[in-house]
Fold this sequence. Notes:
3 domains, alpha+beta, eleven-stranded mixed β-sheet, four-stranded mixed β-sheet, single chain
Amino acid sequence: MDLDYEALGLKCGLEIHQQLDTRKLFCNCPSLLRKDEPDFKVRRKLHVVAGESGEVDIAAAHEASFEKEFTYEGYSDTTCLVELDEEPPHVINPDALKIALQISLLLNCKILPISQVMRKTVIDGSNTSGFQRTVLIARDGFIETSRGRVGIATLCLEEDSARIIDKEKSTFRLDRLGIPLVEIATDAEIKTPGQAKEAALKLGEILRTLPVKRGLGTIRQDVNLSIRGGKRIELKGFQDIRNIERAIQLEVVRQRELIKQGKSISEVRAVNEDGSSRFLRPLPGAARMYPETDIPLLKISRDMVNEAKKTLPSVKEKEIKVEGLNKEMVALLLKRNKVEEFKELLHVIKNPQLIAKTLLVFPREIASKEKKSMAEIEKILNRDVLGNVLEKVHKGVIQVSEIKNVLTETVGGKGHEAYEGKKEGTHEIEEKIAKIIKEKPGLTINGYMGLVMKEFRGKISGKEASEIIKKYVK
């Protein structure tokens, strides 16, 4: 679809909602989604209230017009009174706040020293209280794309909604309610659908360097857009980033036709699988916000910001990129929190690629072969064991080709000490190789290499073995 977006006056921005991998934001309950039968159910009706401006939000009034009754399912051991709106919220989760600060720094944002937790009116049943708690953490940041810089307008920390179980019966589950979310809103500076996709992927890449939840439903993208002469539209519910370009294209075409007919209106639309959209509700405004009176002002000190800076993934990434690792290995080290072990092992042997394989690849392969969990494998192959093995490699006692075998036998209980014997002298090694060749005449050099390396189990290098074999095999 060939459209001139500049001529059409496209204004486009993104909203990214990402779950953080911590306990819930305003209580001590775990952020755990459950499939078993709930222990209890409660029923509620929600009532619309005026926002700080004194007006009732148009989207809230729309939801209130349906006069629905909602059912909420919970568990006695992982649901508390905060989620049921029977107890005031606790102080904000410091782990979630630290992650939000780190994301703010990675997005070049200005962090607010004092902020007010707000209530955002939501009466579609997704929250037992009739509002969502949200707090502005930072603003005025940016990311770089191939088509230029895209500004980050705001970064908020907020609680996720309850999980819809049965839409027809208005049934929600409280296991998701309260999971910490960061909401990142860009400025309306995106010029094309392609740039929107690039910006969304860039934001996702940054978020994945920190403790965030992964998988379907843990990150949600919304698009706000308009064209010249039209009203702002919010497109919600992109589970698949690949759909974002087509959805924007189709909405621009739809808006162009509505403008010609004089029918353009602001609204929220849900995105269908084919990229088309359908009406969801009127577009909410500022009238739905009012202060949260149960929580004191959030104060972010310089010390809190400095503490967040200490462990910024971008700093770690730069440190380990210097060591010559490729992008995939760097990402794996960050994802599996192995950066400190990697740096420690560099003091044992100056071979970053080998260290990365020993930390990341071999343990996973061994876990699969031995049918053990990664937790079991990593408990046995701790940093002391890996350090000892790599030290033996550095000293020549264990050959690089034998590291995986050594670690496998260590997991099996034999221990790497079996490989710590002194290397045989050159004369004795050559005699043994000559005997192998004599007993198996007619093989190729590669054939003898396999037999020799199996015999010596890492006590000589492949280069040494090849040189000796070539003396006897022409």
